[in-house]
Amino acid sequence: MVPSYKRGETAPVLVRGQGTRVWDADGKEYLDFGGGIAVNCLGHSHPALVRALQEQSSQLIHVSNLFFHPKQAELAEELVQRTGPGKVFFCNSGAEANEAMVKAARKAGAAQGRFEVITTLNSFHGRTLGMIAASGQERLREGFGPGMPGFVHVSYNDLAIVEKAIGPKTIAVMVEGIQGEGGVIPATAEYLLGLRKLTRDKGIFLLMDSVQCGHYRTGCFQSYEKILREAGGKELFLPDAVSMAKSLGAGFPIGAVWFGEGLMDALAPGSHGTTYGGTALACAVALEVLRIIEEEKLAENVAVRGEDLKQGLAKLTGRGWVGEVRGFGGMVGLTVKGRPHAEVAGQLAAAGLLVVPAGSDVLRFLPPYNVSKQEVAEALRKVETTL
Ligand SMILES: Cc1ncc(COP(=O)(O)O)c(C=O)c1O
Question: Less Cβ crowding at N or C end of the chain, within 10 Å?
Answer without folding.
Answer: N
